[in-house]
Design goal:
Blueprint (H helix, E strand, L loop, with lengths): L2 E7 L16 E2 L2 E2 H11 L4 E6 L3 H8 L4 E5 L6 H8 L8 E6 L7 H8 L6 E8 L8 E4 L5 E5 L13 E10 H7 L16 H8 L3 E5 L13 H21 L2 E3 L5 E9 L3 E3 L3 E9 L4 E2 L4 E7 L4 E2 L4 E7 L4 E2 L4 E2 L3 E3 L4 E4 L2 E7 L4 E4 L2 E7 L4 E2 L4 E3 L9 E3 L4 E2 L4 E3 L2 E3 L4 E2 L4 E2 L8 E2 L21
Parallel strand pairs: 1-4, 1-6, 4-5, 7-11, 12-14, 13-15, 14-16, 15-17, 16-18, 17-19, 18-20, 19-21, 19-22, 20-23, 21-24, 22-24, 23-25, 24-26, 25-27, 26-29, 27-30, 28-31, 29-32, 30-33, 31-34, 33-35
Antiparallel strand pairs: 2-3, 6-10, 7-10, 8-9
Bound molecules: uridine-diphosphate-N-acetylglucosamine and magnesium ion (MG).
Uridine-diphosphate-N-acetylglucosamine binds next to helix 3 and strand 10.
Length: about 450
């Protein structure tokens, strides 16, 4: 039977105290509801029905995707009402999983277990035991130990409030069951809402069995209502990722001080120092060392590369054995061939450095192709922008660019050529030539310095 997922995300999230709808707040760089949608995708859901309300336009703009069907709940009349809004879009006969846009860490494995429970005679309910069940719906069981109903905190008797098994809200049913039960809900309760939880009682009465499943970890079913809870789940998520990295052969200087906001793929014997942030898709090959406080976004790092502290790399390719930083900024389109070096206070953009080429200090290298083993001295600037258009610079293999030179693009420096320090090079330089543009040095021997005037 095909699988559909309904994600409830219409609530306001007042306690976030934010102009941003709650489900768009980010965890590990991704909107909360984006995590839930991705988990639905991992389960191979055929369709994702996202029930939106507060900030609907913004939620739709952010989470738009081919497999997402947005359903607007104009008024938030309760979880049962929210699910009911999606019912007209459900398939005739499918399994339906109900998830929440503000419960981001629910795991695929737990949900698979829950979905195994679904049939025409049975439904699945995810419950959890809490030492402090305050605020949650309590699970009622009959003499045989079977789940028979859920009673909300506000409707519960003193005796029922002692129950520690609570409703996570996550459940799995068939579309047929939903179509049968939802029209029977009423809002005759303490909150005047249509409770989704009342379907449990209806199921029990018609002898549909309610099979309960528990999550492996507490944080899987924890929701985000304020920024403290958001921070706590962020840490839980990062801790899990850090543990996976360590088990995969990465040494972390401090597993509490790494943030992975995307996909980080690593080989053996990678070392990551404190305070690093990884975004997008980053690959670190064997033996890579990353110094403290580096930011890497969409970067491929080849074997044995050393990136020293405070370096920022985005959309780059490092082939291997490179040395980068400290304080290097590698902007999009930077490609370092094997053994190339980029040192401190160097900015590169759309720059190709051939094997063993070096830019060690204080330079800007943009729209530039550098041949192998070229050496670019401190303070070299490629003047790639004439105020209107960008132009490219070519530096031949083995060329030597003296310190504090300006290379005015478009310009070509030949292989093995030398540029004298302090030159402004606006015309091409032939292979193996020396080019220098420098005012002659003036010298006046025994020159008396001006003396300070004295006033009587
Ligand atoms: C719900 C459950 C409760 C469970 C708890 C777990 C019901 C009636 N109660 O209570 O048994 O222990 O979750 O956290 O289901 N939403 C909508 N539209 C609405 C109402 C809610 O989209 O009209 C969304 C909210 O944005 C939220 C989620 O559904 O993400 C849960 O709603 P909420 O009102 O917070 O339910 P609880 O009272 O927490
Ligand atoms: Mg809630």
């Amino acid at each position: 039977m095909s699988l559909e997922v309904i994600i409830l995300a219409a609530g306001q999230g007042t306690r976030m105290r934010s102009a941003l709808p709650k489900v768009l707040h980010r965890l590990a760089g991704k909107p909360l509801a984006g995590h839930v949608a991705d988990t639905a995708r991992a389960l191979a859901a055929e369709k994702i029905h996202l029930v939106i309300g507060h900030g609907a336009d913004q939620v739709r703009d952010t989470l738009m995707a081919d497999d997402v069907d947005f359903v607007v709940q104009e008024e938030q009349l309760g979880t049962g009402h929210a699910v009911d809004q999606a019912v007209p879009s459900l398939m005739e006969d499918s399994r339906v999983l109900i998830l929440y846009g503000d419960v981001p860490l629910i795991r695929k494995e737990t949900l698979e277990q829950l979905l195994e429970q679904v049939s025409d005679q049975q439904m699945g309910l995810l419950t959890v035991d809490l030492s402090d069940p305050q605020g949650y719906g309590r699970i009622l069981r009959d003499e045989a130990g079977e789940v028979s109903a859920i009673v909300e905190q506000k409707d519960a008797s003193a005796e029922q409030l002692l129950i520690t098994e609570v409703n996570t809200g996550i459940l799995a049913v068939t579309s047929k069951q939903l179509r049968r039960w939802l029209p029977q809900l009423s809002n005759d309760n303490a909150q005047g809402e249509y409770y989704l939880t009342d379907i449990i009682d209806l199921a029990y009465r018609e002898k549909t069995r309610i099979a309960s499943v528990q999550p492996a970890r507490r944080e899987e079913v924890e929701g985000v209502n304020n920024r403290l809870q958001l921070a706590a789940l962020e840490r839980a998520f990062q801790t899990n990722q850090a543990q996976e990295l360590m088990l995969a052969g990465v040494t972390l200087a401090d597993p509490d001080r790494i943030d992975v906001r995307g996909e980080l793929n690593t080989a053996r014997d990678v070392f990551i120092d404190v305070g690093c942030v990884f975004e997008g898709r980053v690959e670190l090959a064997e033996g890579v060392e990353i110094g403290p406080y580096c930011v890497l976004k969409n970067v491929r790092v080849g074997p044995d590369v050393k990136i020293a502290s405070h370096s920022v790399l985005e959309d780059c390719d490092l082939d291997g054995n490179n040395q980068v930083g400290p304080f290097a900024r590698l902007r999009p389109g930077t490609h370092l061939e094997n053994l190339a070096k980029v040192g401190n206070f160097v900015e590169t953009k759309k720059a190709h450095l051939g094997q063993g080429a070096k830019v060690n200090h204080l330079s800007y290298i943009g729209d530039t192709w550098v041949g192998e083993h070229a050496n670019i001295g401190a303070g070299t600037i490629t003047c790639n922008y004439d105020g209107v258009n960008k132009h490219t610079t070519q530096i031949g293999a083995g060329a030597f660019i003296g310190s504090n030179s300006s290379l005015v693009a478009p310009v070509h420096i030949g292989a093995g050529a030398t540029v004298g320090a302090g030159s402004t090079i606006a015309r091409d330089v032939a292979d193996h030539a020396l080019a220098v543009t420098r005012a002659k040095q003036l010298q006046k021997n025994n020159w008396p310095r001006p003396a300070k005037k004295t006033t009587e």
